[in-house]
User: Fold these one by one.
Assistant:
Number 1:
Amino acid sequence: MRKLLKQVTVVALMAGMSYAIPAQAQVQVGEEAPDFTLTDVLGNEHSLSDFHGQFVVLEWVNHGCPFVRKFYNAGEMQRLQEKYTEQGVVWLAICSSRSGEQGYYSPEDAARISEEKGAKHTAYLYDEPGDVGRLYGARVTPHMYVINPDGILIYQGAIDSIRSANPADIERAENYVVSALTQAMAGEEVATPVTTPYGCTVKY
Amino acid sequence: MDKIVNDRYVIALIALFCLQGVLQASGPVRSEHVEAELVSEQAEIRAGEEFWVGLRLVHDPHWHTYWLNPGDSGLETMLTWDLPEGFSAGEIHWPYPERIEMGPLVTYAYERDVVLMVPIQAPAQLDGEEITLHVRADWLECKEICLPGSAELSLTLPVTDQAPQPHPSFAEHFQQARQEWPLRDTGWRFEGERIDDEFTIRAIPPESGAPAVDSAQFFAAEAEMIQYYPAQHWQPENGSYVFTLVRDITFRHEPNRLTGVLVSEDGWLEDQPGRALFVDVAIETGTAPIAAPLAGGPDEISGLAAALFFAFLGGIILNLMPCVFPVISIKIMGFVRQAEEERGHILKHGLLFGLGVLVSFWILAGALIALRAGGEQLGWGFHLQSPVFLMGMSVLFFLLALNLFGVFEVGTSWMGIGQKATGSSTWTGSFFSGALATVIATPCTAPFMGAALGYALTLSAIESLLIFSALGAGMAAPYVLLSAYPQWLRKIPKPGPWMETLKQSMGWLLAATVVWLAWVLNIMGGGEAVILLLGVLFIVGFGSWILGRWGALSRGFPVRLTAKIIAALLIFGGAVVGIGAASQLEPAAGQGAASTSGMPWEDFTPERLEELRAEGQPVFVNFTAAWCLSCLANERVAFSSSRVQAAFREKGITPLKADWTNRDDVIGGVLAEYGRSSVPFYVLYGADHEGAPITLPEILTPGIVLEALEEI
């Protein structure tokens, strides 16, 4: 964590010097996914390294975003969360919204919303002020990442192939997270490891 | 605000009812924050003609909809047409976008009111009095938050057989929109290059002239190519403009062209308004120059002529370097001997020596240039970073020393000593002594040479070779001159027993060189390597002794032959085993140019430097290597001075040491950024992180260092 803070400080200083902030993903498919520790709605800490040996899905979430609502209101996100967590996959919903911005809720509200929506993720994690989002280069909600049991990033990008906020498109689209998990669990290469994510800007 | 919005909505609705009497079929439609309307440039349409319609988007303040490529997030606006039979619609002609920053994310979008124009082709035959066009528009409207918007829009236009009239209220919006299209076929040209993850694009104005463009912003038309956030550093350069883009590292596409739009308030043409310029640029990849371009490189060298002059001067001074001196002194003795001989012979020897120097400079420089072009981070003196070379050199110097001590005589002496200087074998002797002098000389970076060599390696291969030739010519010049004017040597005593004394004393200089090479080897390969070297030298020495004891002419032929065979086996066998073992040596980690100066050096990494500078701390970087004698001299003379150390402490300067004893691509790369390819090199950064660094000369005294420290 201290290292991360240091990185962020350096980045901030560089911004002051009118250098470029890498808004791009710092993470690369095929490389080790960087470790992080975040707190969930109940105040429990979760580290990525706790889940070594399991598939991990990272879902950047903002319940005010219409693209996130597209999947939650249709019940699709919950269905995927349930299906994969039952198979031993760890599903982490991460909210990088800054306090006061859209998508940021108090732990009580976040827990209530998750329950109302019937979310089945392993944990809903707070990433205020967005260090992990920047570390992973999360640009939008929902921005999805899949990490294999060896801790290697095997997918990053959009949730599916049709860039819209219309729930009617879900059925016709290829869900890239499903494809990546299916292929990786079958021991195959992930056919589409990187896509352009679509959705609302993460509210850093 | 909501109140105003609602009022506008009501007025719009009333207008709609009054004028058209048709709900939502025509006129503007409002989503939460955007008003959308399908509009036409003409009031009427005529059969067989193309005409323009457009989606007019009016945004609430700070709300925006997206361009063709939305950037880091967002969705481009989409149109789905439902047209009467025979009509066809073209693509959207996008006005130039605006750059909208949200924290570290950048999107390409419109906050201003725009018309997204689309050409419609009418069929040759039109029945009826009017035609109605339908379109479904989908967009994403965002401020801090995003909302999807969509509308079913339609537009009814009367049919005419006259020339169509412009639309009274919208024609001017179309005129405006056309001015926001990127200019094409302007005479502006573009050249692009990509090295690793950075694109450098050059924009060349048309010959007919163009306004001065003080700033401009590039928008990529295709996704996944570039990162949208980084600064583009638009700047004029020699009558054209240069800017940089950073590749999207997530996707790692290898684009061979980039398309997009350059936007500038200054405009692009003298005779035509328009802030946007269409860009289609071919990208050349992977043609990395011999070295990285000079980044604030040596100012003291302004051109090739100056570099050649300094190289020549540096070459002359090379002769005085401790590692060259023994070879040179032996050569001088050759001259002394030759002084009695025919003038022509002497000159020929001198020229051959010079040729030997030159040719070996060409070979070394050629190898260096070729390896660097292949991407290796090497610098001058690179062969001293190889344990194999060190081992071979040690054996050779040891043998030469034994030879000079008189342990053994070689029939065809490579140095032409004790020989009549007329035999053809001594011609090659002169040539090879020139070559040897060059090889030994290279690690001694003479003053002026560092900058000249760094400069040389940034030039084209031909120019580089020219510089190295000047260096070689400088080194050979004294001998060629002496051989042309042997009378200058008249003052030296006649050959006699004193020459044997001199010869033997030079042997000790060579022996000392072996000690130095062993020390470098120790730093590179550890004590094990030195023990190996000592073993090899023992065997080689033993072979030499046998050769001298029983191989001399005073012995009978069978004895001589046997001795020579045994000696050859021992000497060559020993050398081969030693070199073979040396090639297996792993460079010893964590060891390097040992600090004897008492300065609290920290290991250099580019990250550490960046960190210290970001913290606003002054930093001194010492680029050094164990095989670099000037570096070590500076350590002893300048950095061990208590006044210098006190000044470092007082000013809170962090001393960093970049040790280049073993090959290190990172340090090689950093040196290249300063336009250098050799050590020693010293840089001092002040506390002000914007300020340019101060570079120090290659030969330091405490005074020079203290003076430099005063400047920050």
Note: The longest helix of chain A spans residues 2-16.
Number 2:
Amino acid sequence: MTDTIIRDDRRGGRAGRPRMVGGTPRPGLPIRGLKGIALLIACALVILPFLAVVSTSLADQQQVTEAGGYVLWPDRPNLDAYRAILSGGVVTRALLVSVGITLAGTALSLTCVTLLAYSLSRPGSYLQKPVLLTVLFTLFFTPGMIPMYLTVRQLGLIDSYWALILPTMVGAFQVIIMRAFFQEIPGELIDAARIDGANELQILTRIVLPLSKAVMAVIGLFNAVAYWNAFFNAVLYINDTEKWPLQLVLRTYVVDNAALGVDTADIAGTVMPPSQSLQMAILVISLVPIALVYPFLQRHFAKGMLIGAVKG
Amino acid sequence: MATEVETTPAPAGRGHRPRRPRSPGAGRRPRASRRTRFRRDRFLLLLGLPGLLVVLLFNYVPLFGNVIAFKDYQPYIGIWDSPWVGFSNFDVIFNGDPAFVNALTNTLVISFVQIVFVFPVPIALALLLNSMLSERLKRVAQSILYLPHFMSWVVVVAIFQHMLGNAGLLNNFLRSHDWATLPIFGNPDMFLTLITSQVIWKDAGWGTIIFLAALSRVDMELYEASAVDGASRMRQLWHVTLPSIRGVIVLLLILKLGDVLTVGFEQIILQRQQVGADASEVLDTYVYFNGVIGGNWGVSAAVGLIKGLVGVVLVLGANKVAHLLGERGVYSK
């Protein structure tokens, strides 16, 4: 609505520019300027730290020393810091752990959520109401950290990767969003498939899932980001530093500034990268997967969040 | 499977909702019908089973663990054999143990400061974005402002520390010009300001989405009518825009109030060490450090249990208020 009015208005050309835009008086130049500056500052506050992080990770020792620690633009960009942390050792291992947990967790979570949502989406099916209520009630309480910890320990999952996957695997909210989506699929489609002799599994895989790619992608990515970013479950359940995911390594070496024992033997002939570069390189690596899916996240998450807000 | 589908009447899709076979006058379903329905839907039930088991195992089973709030739990004896101690674990709450009171006070202070200073930021930002005339500029700004929402708290705290910490970008810059440095990190007096600005940095942009959606639904004719009546932009903002999104604002505020006992746990635990427990301990970190680290399992479980119960009451109460005000709330009546 706003969109078309503004566009039409602009097409009118400079001379014919009306006093009104979308029903509101066009603001004067100073106001528009101030707004632009305010927005620019807000964006700069987000962008500049990232710029400094990426630049410092690429900078060499000389520039880092001259700048006193951090640089806003690398004069002689190099990848030494990345080579150092990715040539085996703590960061490499943690990266593999995080990738594994994210992939496995997302796949399992998406499967369980989809199947549960589908089984709750057929009208009038047996036991639907009690199961649905069981899922819904979890929205109103959390078991608490201590009982949760005791349960995970009782299940023998301390120091197991399962402790990082299972507790957050099935979110009630996701089940409800996906169920709402499945319920939108016209019943006639499903009836038609059934008349053609399709069984439940075929209906699910040939009819329902292909129609639900968008919502599955949104929920899958949501889970992937959550698994990738999860930090506290690992603090609680993982004592063995060999099994640390990347976020814990990040905490230890980048927030708490513990010395990073990088094996420099493998990168012979190069100077040891400055510690700030190493730290910032770890930070950048932890951001790469997010950056890769961000264009998609941004487009679909806003939509997904609103579905949740409306249907929830 | 296929044979079953052919022999039993299939559950029809939406619009052809199958009615349960009911004998006239009988209020209860006959036994056979239940078996038939089970036979008909057993594959559906099987599909939902893994997810349901995970929900039961990690949302319901742990609830039983709350019994240790009434026990002197010793890990080597086990939950079952640890002796019952009645309500003595709750003494820290009812007798006002200083560490507990400190955690409770900090939690409430942080919550209310964040409601006052964090809550309005996305609204203001959404109004600013919404008033941008250039659609492209708006979209670019949104892409940038949403970004920090997808960072983990570890990343956000790390970035803040390396920018504003004592050896960070800002203080290095100040030092190189022989200016006084700003002790932002590791400074208990600055802690509240610091974590509040972190929350704004991370989530203010993302928080605009719901307000922008509400703003896009405001009836354009209202603006046109008010402009005809000679309203300035400020008056339109006050008399048209804000009343139109009042519902969303009230709803989110109420939900926020239902959540006052929970403040950024991961965020605070990452920075607790630097400023000490006095300034930074909140209920969740108290439970963690007292219980999992300190071994006071019973007391921690008691505090967690009370916090959980009060939390449920607050959420339900907040929804009740939302309904009274004619809003939807988290669930509908």
Note: Chain A touches chain B through 114 residues (CB under 8 Å).
Number 3:
Amino acid sequence: MLPRAEVVVRGRSVAGTLGQPYIPNLPRVGACSPREPENTAVAASGSRAGPLVFLAFLVSHMSPNLSSTASHLSDAVALPDPLLGHLSMLPTALLETAAVVPSAFLLTGAVAICAVGLVLLMQPGQQSLRLGGTVLGLAGFAMLIVEVLKRAVPAGADGGIPPVFPVVFGLLAVVGAVRVMTNPRPVFAALYFMLVVLAGGGMFLLLDAEFMAFALVIVYAGAILITYMFVLMLAQQSPVAGVGEAWYDRMPREAISGVIVGFVILATLSDAYFSPKAQIARDTTMVESAHAGTVASWQRLASMPKLLLETARVANPAVVSITSFDPETGRLDAVLTSGASEQITLPPSMMPDNSRQVGVELVSRFPAGLEIAGVVLLMALFGAVILARKQIELGEDERRTIAGMRRLTVEGEAGGSSATLGANR
Amino acid sequence: MMPWTTSLAATDAQTINAALLVSALLFTCGLVGFLTRRNMIIMFLCTELMFQAAALALIAFGKVHQDLSGQVFVIFILTVAAAEAALALGLVVLLYRRRETLDSEAWSELRETS
């Protein structure tokens, strides 16, 4: 990723030495200069190579080579070193609130840029405004995700492979979501929602939730969205020639106040998720719960004796029965065909797969929830049947004619009696 | 800790951070869409967006805690979303038959004008 970013950047004749990762001349963590969004917007809209430059900006910021940026960073803002190594969990890092404030301001600033971009995107029928909104929104998203990813990496540590997949899936999901809420054509909005679902499924895969990823795609993209499509076909008005979509699809209602409400919540959420304090708490929890997660997996395996025996047979085909299993260590005592007893330690790769574990968790820890989910689905089924069976009352056509609305039955066909309606259905 | 383990852990943390950010953004888009769109079907589509955001956050926090409860709760979210879609869309079709429009403001008086 990195060399390509260099080439693109050098193609725009930005100073950068060969073989050195490109470090843009922008303030890093902790500084929110008003120049930053402008730079991004100008770079992204400067020429037809705009998207490439945007990518280069994204990639160069994700450069794992944090150590080389540390000096750059420290003369941009006098950040105390302990804050950089937040994974070292030094309590002093929390006390340096003076250095934390501009960093929090950077997130809030990026959220504000996104909000302005979204307001521009929601203006109907003005191409230039919408283009500016797209650029601003992408720039805001890039700032947000770069900052958020940077906070996840302990300073001084090698960031490893730049996280390409989370960024790609995240960008797809967010672009899809914005199109869902701004597209004037409802059918396209539903299709973009499918994009959101697929990208969300990818995110689930990255988070080791394989079963839920596929369940999500099957249930959402396969079932719920198809229902939406059917209803859109049943209920949508065809576009008026010359005018386009119905007016209520083109005109947003109270765009600015809506965006303000939404993005105040986003600013609060991003502060709650990504403040240094929350980040340290999350990292600590991850480290602490790693062992508990392994033990829980082995316990789920222990609750399935047949699978446990099969797993032990994979480790040693001569196993006949298992006398004891210790979930803490994954060690089991087995009786072999020869009659001898042997101790086997199962490697972590032999843990039951995600779908099995979710299934065991579902029926062993949440049986009541499972029953209630079944009842909810049954009630929804009854409700949908009752709603769909709603009869159109006798004489409704006459009342509709008086009110100036379209008749439900064809005129001259027994005037809207229930018999006709039944035949029409 | 070995260097490669720290780099792996950092990637996990990065994925979780990205997922949380995306979940917050999806929720915001859903909320703003619900507030600003007038088409009733799109409004319900935006609630589905918010469901999606909640599911993503649950999975991400489940990964933080190495606990499968988050994934199990996503199953319940899917259940509720399916039930909601079935009922809400049935209602939308009924409302459309009455007024011949999907505009939610046609129903701002919460009754049928006759």
Note: The first strand of chain A starts at residue 319 and ends at 326.
Number 4:
Amino acid sequence: MLKLVGCILLLFATTGIGFILAGKLAARPKQIRRLISALSILETEIHYSSRNLSTACSHIGDRDIEMISELFRQMALRLTTMDGAATYECLKLAVQDWWPTSAMKTSEKEVFLQFCKTLGNSDRSDQLTHLALAKQNLQVEEQKAREEQFQYEKMVRTLGVLAGALLIILLY
Amino acid sequence: MDLKPIYQVLPLSIRNRIQSLPRTILSGLEEVRIRQDRPLEVIASGKNWFVSSNQQLKLDPRDCIHPTREECHKLLNLISNHSLYALEEELRLGYITVEGGHRIGLAGKVITEGGRVKHVRDVTGFNIRIARQIKGVGSALFPIINQKDEIKNLLIVSPPGCGKTTLLRDLARLVSTGEGCTARKVGIVDERSEIAGCVTGVPQHDVGARTDILDACPKAEGMMMLIRSMSPEIIVVDEVGRKEDADAIHEAIYAGVHLFTTAHGSSIEEVRKRPILKDLIEEGVFERIVLLSRRSGPGTVEAVYDGTCQLLRTAVCSS
């Protein structure tokens, strides 16, 4: 009887892990997409409103963009509270704090950090060029993430169930 | 005098030094000059001092604090809020107005494009000019400009740093709030953000209740814009002297609008030699010309002339 309960628990656990991993695979392209749209908002803030970076970031932070608003809130906070430290340092700290909480991986992070290096320290037209470039690179990442999701999402999910079943057969 | 907006833009290391200066210096503070790898300088009550490493004020620039490259970077980041793109115009002109109407002049490597200044790169020199609004400096002069509730066109002449803008600002405030006359609609064209010291369009100095401000607007164009759209009774502009300005002034004067303005110069003879101003004065556009100096402190009224350059008054009334 106890064994049976154990088996069921094991099966639930591995299935759960499978679903969580699959969920992450599915969330990643969505989050990249939202990050791209957040950058579009940043673009209008910079180009049209010509707002300063911390105000622009906190404006985006005030919007209801799942996950991403938090990143921009943290960026705004770092920009205003670090006694004029280099812009990139402020942004890097915020990104490094926030990134592990998201489903995004290091390749997107690299693209975003690269973009952060240019943020704020040149004139408007140059900022726009870098924004466009960052968006383009993120789109490539999004495409890759989508392919990955397509390839592995179902597999990971079934693998969870099957791994559970395998363990049960082995241990029973 | 609130120096908080100034402290906010200074990096911590420099802020601490400035904050721990004696009170008497802080209350008379006029300028803080920060130059990369050169001694930190403060100018207070007309005297200049270097700040030594133990917070002493000295005249000798040896062993004083030298702001580092990193501190200059931090300062620029704090001034610009990490957003140079938002300051394109300011970098082209070489100064930034911060909260409180204080102005920060910038010096460094200038980048040009097609012969015109594009922006200042590698900013290594900062001149933080503390703006002081002295309410009431215009009251003594006011009866001369306002006779039987009729406002005269005014030209204030003085060398730099003698309180032209301070006087102009106070006169705008007096006319606009109606202290000593009927309150008039006032329009300020503030090309260099000096008169009202606007930050995001909001004046940081009290320029009166009925005053509209075109901030950072070219003078000639701004005067025309005001006449067209804001129906001012008095237009206030700083430092006229170009051809376009004269055209706009004509347009304004003959549209029944009164004008308060300033020009650089140390005597009326000097101003009368300047090409554009000469014509305006000879035409009798300005009904009152006030000459300022620093003889007994900024804002000393040296003389008042009428439209035909006849001396009305020489009494030195330090305001």
Note: The first helix of chain A runs from residue 2 to 49.
